[in-house]
Amino acid sequence: MLQDDASQRLAAVQTAILRAAKIAGRKPDAITLIAVSKTHDAATIQPLIAAGQRVFGENRVQEAQGKWPQLREATPGIELHLVGQLQSNKAEEAVALFDAIHGVDRSSLVTALAKAMDKADRRPACFLQVNIGDEPQKGGCPVADVPALLAEARAANLPVAGLMCVPPAGLEAAPYFALLAKLAGEQGLDGLSMGMSSDFETAVTLGATHVRVGTALFGDRA
Ligand SMILES: *Cc1c(COP(=O)(O)O)cnc(C)c1O
């Protein structure tokens, strides 16, 4: 990716976030842009770092291990979020590498993460992923089970920052974002990880604190 392209795409997304925040009467600094760099190599990511972006997201532990240690060495202050599904047997590696984990969606993973965090004495922020459309086959905790999973996560000393969702494909996202915001409010959680390239502005107007944007920053994935 050319440096100019990277700078322009980043500026466009930042401007859209500012505009949506203004419409909603929200403070722009309450919204973190996570640049989702999955499938893209270091050479593609570098221009975005040069343009000033510091918060990135990946969806596979192994892929992230392959490129982020070097990128982080070159630029201090990078924050790395795991935005995808996490297998319990990768919990230790995830805790070692990531600053936040967005896919916490079941008891077994809560247990594995708690164990890994105790062992590493490192506690990345956790977002509980909610299957907000209650879709079969989709990752995330069923809506009705959120209070129980949250109680387990808190009892296990996971630093729960908020809730995360990916709304059903092909449907208007706004009602699902509103539902996630309501659930978070009921549970006393401030963090809302919601909104991707196609709908992050809507997510910001509905309270997103973390938007996860890939394509709008990096272009299409191969
Ligand atoms: C890939 C991915 C994104 C980014 O999607 P874009 O549509 O490319 O912005 C966001 N969240 C999750 C969980 C993802 O896997």
From TrEMBL:
Presence of the UniProt keyword Ribosomal protein in the record: no
GO MF annotations in UniProt: pyridoxal phosphate binding
Domain of life: Bacteria
Family the entry assigns: Belongs to the pyridoxal phosphate-binding protein YggS/PROSC family.
HAMAP family, A to Z: PLP_homeostasis
Job of this protein: Pyridoxal 5'-phosphate (PLP)-binding protein, which is involved in PLP homeostasis.
Protein name: Pyridoxal phosphate homeostasis protein
Organism: Sphingomonas pokkalii
